[in-house]
Design goal:
By secondary structure, the protein is α/β, with parallel strands linked by helices. It has helices spanning 9-24, 28-40, 57-65, 70-82, 91-102, 118-134, 145-153, 175-187, 217-229, 240-249, 273-281, 292-295, 301-315, 363-368, 374-383, 388-407, and strands spanning 44-48, 52-53, 106-110, 139-141, 157-163, 190-194, 232-234, 256-261, 270-271, 286-288, 320-322, 329-330. Helices cover 46% and strands 11% of the residues. Strand 6 (190-194), helix 9 (217-229) and strand 7 (232-234) form a beta-alpha-beta unit.
């Protein structure tokens, strides 16, 4: 939600809201119109996270005292922050509160993990499935645009499932068997999958590889299978050549769910204009994220709006979305003095060898783009002169369209 956490979630929300307003400085008319437009529109985030809590430090210390190894600790941690936290103290009310403040109606939640392991993907998917089933008065699992729109009418938060990877068997016997779990996960409600996650895999090269060899022959079979099974190929973490070749060979829209523009930032997670044009030609969209390190520039809500505006000018509002890749944090942030030996899990995914210009991230940056500030993203687009109908497309219309075209 923000960078400087307070025990009171509502104080965090108000602080972040004021931070963004102080940067945007909208007129009274711009603010009122933007907030009304946001409340009326269908707002869908193609890729993000449900509100979650930090682990209570007494729990964390208890788990460490039990002598859990890192895999057990990760499982306990995820069960709490993604699922069990909602039963703890005031978290249930805070969960509903931050969703209401965001004005978001639907989220494509990251229900996957950064590898192709079927078992790990199932484990993560189970958390969100169980959460939706346990709290049906708040959440509704949805797999179609019609269900998502109906959930909004009922006052429920629509949850769709994305995955950070394509599920593949550990041992590949033949092409049919290799592709079989795409069908399985599509039946489980996963309708968007990353082809790669920063690094190279059997499908293609990620955006963090020094040499982008593009989409593999097997990768082309994967894209074809995704087209056939109603799964959107997500190129957010793919290399530019891999992304362009996937866009060219796909018979249905492909997307860059959450990224930023390489024309405005030198971060390796940003996409070149030619790549975005290829995605738009497929009928897909590019979603702008809310990470200061990706956006660069001022690194705050103004920079985020610069990237949105650039993509609108480049490919038109029919091919732009917002996917923060962030979520609201519930509860206080605490640190423990206890430590355990752990290998750096994500070093292989987030390489240090790619040189980036020094960039200092501040609390103001994070606060201004807090997930609960989503209505102010709309206000900012109003300020930039983007027409209301185009803003509605960016907020959720494009996601609904691409999902509908994919499911046909």
């Amino acid at each position: 939600m923000g960078y400087n956490y307070d025990d009171d979630v509502r104080k965090n929300v108000e602080r972040c809201y004021k931070t963004a307003l102080d940067i945007l400085k909208p007129s009274k008319q711009e603010l009122e119109h933007g907030l009304e437009l946001h409340a009326d529109a269908f707002v869908a985030e193609p890729y993000g996270f449900l509100p979650a809590a930090h682990v209570r430090i007494d729990l964390y210390d208890q788990w460490l005292d039990e002598g859990l190894h890192d895999m057990e600790l990760r499982d306990r941690y995820e069960e709490y922050v993604l699922l069990n936290f909602i039963k703890d103290g005031t978290n249930y009310d805070d969960f509903k509160y931050v969703i209401e403040r965001s004005g978001v109606n639907c989220i494509g939640v990251n229900a996957g993990i950064e590898n192709n392991s079927v078992t790990e993907l199932v484990k993560r998917l189970s958390y969100y499935t169980y959460l939706c089933d346990t709290y049906p008065e708040i959440l509704q699992r949805c797999t179609t645009p019609e269900q998502m729109l109906e959930a909004k009418k009922k006052g429920k938060f629509a949850v769709a499932f994305d995955a950070n990877a394509v599920p593949l068997p550990a041992h590949l016997e033949n092409l049919e068997q290799a592709l079989s779990f795409i069908r399985v996960f599509a039946r489980l409600g996963v309708h968007m999958m990353h082809l790669t996650y920063n690094r190279r895999n059997l499908i293609g090269d990620g955006c963090a590889e020094p040499n982008d060899a593009g989409l593999s022959g097997f990768g082309r079979s994967v894209v074809a299978e995704m087209n056939a099974r109603g799964v959107i190929p997500d190129l957010a973490h793919s290399g530019n050549r891999t992304a362009m070749e996937a866009a060219e060979c796909s018979k249905k829209p492909v997307v860059i769910s959450h990224a930023a523009s390489a024309a405005l930032s030198d971060h390796f997670r940003c996409k070149k204009d030619e790549t975005v044009k290829a995605v738009a030609k497929s009928g897909g969209f590019v979603g702008v994220c809310a990470y200061p390190t990706f956006l660069r520039g001022t690194g705050n809500i103004a920079s985020m709006l610069n990237h949105i505006e650039h993509f609108v000018e480049l490919v038109g509002a029919d091919h732009v979305a917002i996917a923060t890749d962030c979520g609201a944090s519930i509860g206080p942030l605490r640190h423990t003095e206890k430590v355990y030996r752990k290998l750096p899990l994500f070093d292989s995914w987030w390489p240090k060898e790619i040189p980036l210009a020094p960039y200092e991230v501040t609390g103001e940056m994070w606060d201004s783009m807090a997930w609960t500030n989503f209505p102010l993203f709309t206000v900012g687009m109003v300020q930039r002169g983007i027409p209301d109908d185009d803003i509605r497309k960016i907020l959720g219309g494009n996601y609904l369209r691409v999902l509908k075209e994919t499911l046909v």
